[in-house]
User: Which sequence fits this backbone?
């Protein structure tokens, strides 16, 4: 049995690979803002920052579960999580001011199952 961290890493690997097959360009994975001691800026991690085929900058949140026993992976993306990802996205943009995109959005990807049998779902523009 894999740990929840190993399952999560596997899900992120699958999500990024599938998005790349759909012509998304990976800019960075597992991004965290640079923080100095005592810094009050938002803390957390963006699973993947990608550029979609239309030129939009996409901040991807991946949720992975082995089974649906505890609900859909999307159930874990509550409004508080969405707001945190948005704050992290703005932090990413401020740390990468030279990067220009047509627009910004947050997408969510759900992976459920095992490496030999899994489902994949991609929701664009999660609010």
Assistant:
């Amino acid at each position: 049995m894999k740990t929840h961290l190993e399952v999560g890493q596997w899900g992120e690997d699958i999500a990024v690979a599938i998005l790349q097959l759909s012509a998304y360009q990976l800019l960075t994975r597992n991004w965290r803002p640079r923080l100095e001691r005592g810094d009050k800026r938002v803390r957390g991690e963006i699973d993947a920052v990608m550029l979609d085929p239309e030129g939009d900058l996409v901040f991807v949140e991946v949720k992975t579960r082995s089974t649906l026993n505890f609900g859909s992976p999307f159930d874990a993306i509550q409004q508080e999580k969405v707001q945190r990802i948005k704050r992290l996205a703005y932090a990413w943009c401020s740390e990468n001011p030279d990067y220009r995109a047509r627009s910004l959005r947050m997408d969510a990807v759900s992976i459920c199952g095992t490496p030999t049998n899994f489902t994949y779902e991609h929701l664009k523009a999660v609010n």
Summary: The domain at 4-31+42-122 is CATH 3.40.1350.10 (Trna Endonuclease; Chain: A, domain 1). The longest helix spans residues 4-21. The chain has a mean pLDDT of 86. The radius of gyration is 15 Å.
